[in-house]
Each structure stands twice: as C-alpha cells, then as structure tokens.
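[agent] plan:
  1. take the single chain provided in the ticket
  2. run structure prediction with default settings
  3. attach structure tokens to the ticket
  4. add a short note for the reviewer (M.T.)
[agent] executing step 1
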Amino acid sequence: MQFTMRRRFVATSLAVALGAATLAACSSDSENKDSADSGRVSLTYWAWAPGTDKAAEIWNKKNPDIQVTVREQASGDDLVTKVITAAKANKTPDLVQAEYQAIPTLVSNDVLADIADEVKDAEDKFAPGIWQQVTLGTDSAFAVPQDSGPLMFYYREDLFKKYGLTVPATWDEFAETARKLKKEDPSKALTTFSSNDSGLFAGLAQQAGAKWWTAEGQKWKVAIDDAATKKVADFWGGLVEEGAIDNQPMYTPAWNKALNTGKQIAWVSAVWAPGTLTTGAPDTAGKWAMAPLPQWSKGENATGSWGGSSTGVTTNSKHKEAAAKFATWLNTDQEAIAAMAEDGSIYPAATAAQTSDALSKAPDFFSNQPDFYAKAAEITKTTAPSAWGPNVNVAYTTFKDAFGKAAKAKSKDSFTSALTAMQDDTVADMKKQGFEVAE
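[agent] step 2 finished; step 3 output follows
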C-alpha cells in the first residue's frame, strides 16, 4: 500500500508506505549512520516514564561506546509540540518517547525515522496488536513498543456478591447487570460514562473493530463515525439515557468519592487502574477484582487499548543504528524493564516481560488477586489493531466537547450527533492542513 501522510504530495512512486514522510526519513539515512563504529556515540533520549534514567544507567555501564542521557519531559501533546518544533530547527534528540496515537503526527512531520531494518528481530517479542501500533499497518517500523494499556473490567467483588451480580462476559450482560443493580439499589451505579478522557472511548471503539484512520492510495480515509463506533456510542448513550449508569466525568472529587464509598461499583479501565484506585478510593483496597473486558458477541476475545507509548528514533539523529539498538534493548531486556516497572508506573509491552519476576507480585491494591498480572498478560495478547491518524488531538478535543454535552443531555441521539461532530471536525481539519481525504 502506497500513500503519503504529508501535506504536499511527491510524484515519485515509493516502495515503502507513508510516502513523503518515510522518504524524508530514508533520504537522511546516510546522515544518520554512525560516523565511526570505533568511536564513542552519545545519544539523548526525551522521555517521561519513571525509571527510564535507571535503565539508561544499566545500559551505560554495559555499553561504554554508546552512552545515553535521559532528559525528563512532559508527556502528551506538550512533548509532541516540543519535538516537532525542535525538528524544524534540527535540534531533536536521538530518541523520543511517543504515545502510540502520536506516531502518525510525528511521522507526518518528518520527526520519526523508519527503523524497520534495525528492529526487525524485535517484532516477535510483542503481541501483534501492540506491534501494529508502531508500524501503522505497513512494512515500516517507526518505534519500538514500550508500554501498553489493555482494557479490562474492574469491579467491587464484595458488592457484586452482596447484590447477586455476575461478572458480565458480553456487553448485553453488562447492560443487564447495570439495570439489575439499579433495581436492587437506585442510589448506586455500575459505572459512569465519562467525556473527559477520549482514550477510553477510542479503546472501546478499537475493541469493536473500528479503524478511525486508514489510507486509500494517496489519500486518508477517516471513519470515526463507522458502524463499529456507532455501536459503541449507541450502547453507552442508551444506558445514560435510561439512567442505568451515571453520566459524571472521571477523576473529579465526586467520582473519587463514588468509587471510595461504593456508590459506583465497577470501572472499565486499563491495566494501570490500580494506581488510580489507590489514590482515588483508598478505603476499598483488597475489595476489587479484575476480569477481561465484556465482548460484543459470545466467543469473541478482544480488547482495546487506553494509553501506551513507544521509543522512536528521530530522523535528525546521526546515530540511527545505535539509537535503534538502545530502543530495542530498553523495551525487551529483562533488567531494563524491571528498572522501569519497579514502581508500577508502566506495564511493559514486551510479552515475556509481562510474566517476568518484575511483575510476579500483584499490585498491593489487588493483594486479593495474586494472579493479577498473569491474567493481564493473557488479556494483552488479545489487543485489537488500532488505526491512528495525523490529527488525533482534534478528534479528542471534539470528543470532550461534543460528548460532554451529550452526557449532560442524557440523550442517545445526542451521542450520535457527537460522533458526527468528531468525524466532521477531524475531516475539516485534515483538509485545512492540506491532507487529501477520501470522501
């Protein structure tokens, strides 16, 4: 598949996908080659994950000829903006930590190099759905997966028993569980639909089979309002409209209190949820359990992602080969991963690391579920492929605004309208930037 992610098209036919963005990366390969294999190479890595500096120290002791300096940065859009600005001035670091949904934006701005040849032996160390997020569905590879955020179902084990509820295996059962709880105790809610974090909704759509951005020849196709995502929006909009679940945003004092007091007894979240529950609902330690995400049909076995990041090599790096070598080591070596996972801040993307000694003990908050990470590893294997585009930030901003209004309106039709707004705003922004978009 040949297409371009840049704002101006090149007439030349490209052998590798991602068109001009990849061409820019490839054309600079000769400049990025290590100048002298026998000389010392100094690399700089912009990252935010705790423990990365500790891992770099381990590397530096073992590799005196390739020394890495970690410079802590802000995460999210702040880092993306900073890296793109630095790239325009040819002042990017050699490596950068990039969230999966930011990779297309960085590629389209000629920030990330294609390191497929350098990291080809790493692919089998990750679940297919995780690896796909750094390849964008092509033969290229623009980073090495670092951590992942597979979606799971968290529930108050004690309250499920009290109200005679069973863990839902399908979304239909999830809806029935929400209704049964309301009937048993109207003051409680199974969960809430929140509009202040777009990542959860994106992950749920991913599980349902949505592919929001794909390429058609030399054009982008945007399908945020596809059938899979409409199904997700209608499902949650319907539950909000009938009052079966709450409509309050997450991460607020009111939401924390609801979790802590048992007013909300379940949460669809990612593998990192124990950390949030520890601070938001401290009185409930040992009362929660984790299970796989409900499925749309019995017999299916898929989950989505909420968060996760990778380590990419920049096109400006003069030491592409050495940088890719470090990126691979950082995210596949057991000692390196242990250093980053020590405080539980990241869940490693490498399959073997998910059952390593570093994760042999369940999170303290889930001491009642000693096989927490063993279950998480099995769930991670079922991660569905994603499809990100060059302006995820626009789609996410519209989600917060449009779905925020829809949640307050408690109208299923408003959820449908909100999805249309996401589609329209995303397409309009891409056209404004000069991307060709298929109708």
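[agent] step 4 note for reviewer: The chain has two domains: 19-148+307-367, 150-304+386-433.
[agent] ticket updated
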